[in-house]
Each structure stands twice: as structure tokens, then as C-alpha cells.
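FW: tagging you since you asked about this chain on Friday. Here's the raw sequence from the shared folder, copied in full. Didn't touch anything.
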Amino acid sequence: MWSAWSELVSITVGLFGLLIAASANLSRAGQADYVEIFQVGGTNTGHSLESLPPDAKPIVLEIPDEFRYGSSRRVSRAWGLNILTFYPGFTSPTAPENAKFTHSCVGDCNGRMLISIENKRQPIHNPSGTTNHIDYPNMGDAIAHSQIENPIFGRGAEKIPLGPQDGFDSGFETHAPSRDANSEQIHKYLFHLSPDRVHYDLAAECQLNKFAKTCRLHFSLKCNPAIYVQVVAIDMRHIDQFADVVAKTDAFVSSMVRRPECEQG
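HL: got it, structure written out here
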């Protein structure tokens, strides 16, 4: 199972990376803006974005404003950034084919997905009290362990272990007690092992109810594990394509990273 996933990711990153690089070059000639993303906490605790200490080390990205979502528009400093795009082409919300899916839409919405980017230098390869003295190699591993060791589910909910499925190695799901079919809630947590077969490199959490079936993906960029990426909302109908979603999102975000340099693999 891993070999198929790994091969798909490698092929996808190679081909899609070329397309993204070309797109990034066009963006730099247009209206792309630089933004510094600073880590929340650590030596920045108690500071505002305007009063950060001299040793604060941001991640710098160049992101076209047309992709930025909500409060992330037109900012040059942030604790995190949100990008709105559409899978599988990673087109912008201003593209004509996406116009009617940008706001009032429920479901797949032409592959709409919100990407969140954060600076997580502190927990990566830095065992400390805040990481329970665990050496996390990436944020997918950190989130997976948090969900496995400290699962959150309501009173009376049932936890059911899950075996390998949909390209993931393990997981579990919780079923909350419901009065009727309209209020039934299922939460599914899935984990993918990295090539070392010891640590995880991807965690997914999905929510299923009468109105929607959506997932959130957690992982780090391969070129810099301190850059924490979440695909905040993607329709669960793409679950068989999550390897492709992650590979293309990695290439998409990596193409925008300016400092530290993020070389395409």
C-alpha cells in the first residue's frame, strides 16, 4: 500500500511541480505579495506582530492576493495565512469556472478547498515540555499522536478502531449518540505512516453528518517540516485521491515559499 502511495506522490510532485513553477513565475510578474508568517508562542509569547523580538524568524511566502481568503488579504505579517483554491487544478477564486462556488455553496463546490499555513518551528525536532519530550519530525506525526493519545469525543460516544483503508494505515472513528438520523454524527480519524514506517506523515479527520461529509488534512511541507499545512475543508468524495491532494498542495505551497528557500523535489 505504501509503495503505491509513494510512487503516486513522486510522479505527481514531479509533473505538477513544473506547472506550479510556471504559474508562480507568472504570479511574480503580476500582483503577488510577500507575507511573513511568524510562530505563535515560544519566544514570541506576549508580543504583537508589531513588537516581535529581534530573533523572531518568519517564514516568507509570495502569495497572489487573489488566492488569499478573508483576513489574509493584503497583509504583510501574520500568525498564519488562509488560501482558497480549487482541486485538482489549483485555480484561483477569480477564475470564471469558480465564480459561483466561492461563497454560498454546500458540498464539493467544484473541488473548493481552504488551505491554512502556519509557522511551527518550535515543535519540530525540539523535544520539550510542550511536546511531552517527543521528537516530532513533522506536523502530520505531531497531530496524529495528539489525536491517538488524546481523542475528543462526547459522552456516550463509541470508539471503533479502523484498519488500513483509502491509502491510510490505521485510524478510528467515533459515533455520537443521536436522537434520530438527522442528528447522527460520525468522526473519522485516519493516519498514514511515513517511509520509515515508524512516524506518521499525514493525519486526516473527517466529519460525516446528514448535511456534509468533509475532511481536514494535516501535514508538513516536505522541503521544510516547520511549515505546517492544513487542507481545512475538502469534500470526502475525494478520499481516494488524498495522496494526490497532498502531493499537489505540497507543490503548490512550496512554489510560494521564498525564505527559507524551499527547493522542489
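FW: The longest strand covers residues 224-235.
HL: agreed, and Confidence is low (pLDDT under 50) at residues 1-9, 18-31.
FW: great, closing this out.
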